[in-house]
Amino acid sequence: MSLKLLVLHGPNLNLLGEREPEIYGTLTLTEINQRLKKAAKTMSATLRIFQSNSEGELIDLLHQNRKWAQGVVFNPGAYTHYSYAIRDAVSAIQIPVIEVHLSDIKKREPFRRKSVIAPACLDQVSGLGWKSYLEGMKRLRTRIVGPLVMAWMALLLSRESHALSVDVVGGYALPGAAVTGSGVVAGGALPAISYGLLLDAGISSQLSLQFGALYAPRAFSVAVGAVASNYSTMAVHLPVLLRMSWLGIFSVGVGGYFSHSLTQGSWDVTPSGVKKMNQDDSGVVASVDMKIKLLPFLNAVVDGRYLIGFQNINQSSAFTAYVRDAQLWAGLRFGK
After folding, report:
1. Entry pTM
2. I need a surface site. Which of 117, 192, 206, 288 has the fewest CB within 10 A?
3. What is the mean pLDDT of residues 4-24?
């Protein structure tokens, strides 16, 4: 979802960079706008930016953009201290407005310390230089996007049937392999931290389909003669399971998985004759989880699972590694 924000610069801000730089800084208005546009891209926000020295024009811009903008970042300049007409316009458009100032107006001349516009605004930010605008954008994003996401989640997760729950999990995985061929024998590897997201789509009151994406290790401890070496990489792990609830707090699931490494793995010492390791493996997975209710649509969850799969190791001739993973996850479940 793209956040639509109106940015308004008031009187004399077109002279930034040359007007009292010891107070307002050396950045020009163009440079500030460029920084705001760059920041907007990382926030998935679209900006409309205007500057005017006219009180009436600033009011017109508020009126004209009230049905497009979801929020306004507004530096009224000197109008801050006496323009009740702008205050009335801020109240009239009925969208959140953040008043911003480059300097800290509370430490300026006495007449600058009071804002007649601030009481009609959601908040005021001052004294951060150009970053006052950035902070205003962030506060609007929190105010506008946060409640929309929470309302959507609450509506979706409150449905009795075909509900969707989201697990945010982290934990340990203990991957290993049993390999035969060409004198290579492999055992388990040390545990590694893993994390990711799992989604459960309700099929009925007792059945759900779980799928997701986890960042999980792939590792082997290989011995070739007297030389031992560890091979390790991290991969995107994609499980799909059919789950059945049990006694209200437990569920069991069976399904399959596919794992694909995003980067080339590495050996401590490359075993003799091993040219490369295939980065992908796939197989079957079984799972048992337990949930502890914290709030109506928030649960703590503990998930233990066991995976069996296959991976190819390419030497002078390819052969198959028998992969097994023991995984333990813990996290939060948003939904039933």
Report:
1. 0.47
2. 206
3. 90
Query: What domains are there in the chain, each with its CATH number?
Result: 3-156 (3.40.50.9100), 159-334 (2.40.160.20)
Is 24 among the catalytic positions?
yes
24, 79, 133, 257: the catalytic one is: 24
Average pLDDT over residues 14-33: 89
Token readout for 295 is: 């709030």
Distances from the Cα of 58 to the Cα of 97, 137, 276, angstroms: 13, 19, 65
Cα–Cα distance list, 14 to 11, 61, 118, 208 (Å):
7, 17, 22, 59
Kindly indicate the confidence band of residue 185, based on its pLDDT and cuts at 50, 70 and 90. Answer: very low
* Calpha distance 51→113 (Å, rounded): 23
Q: Tokens 């991957």, residue?
A: 175
8 A C-beta contact, residue 136 and residue 122: no
63: annotated active-site residue: no
Active-site residue among 9, 79, 101, 257? Answer: 101
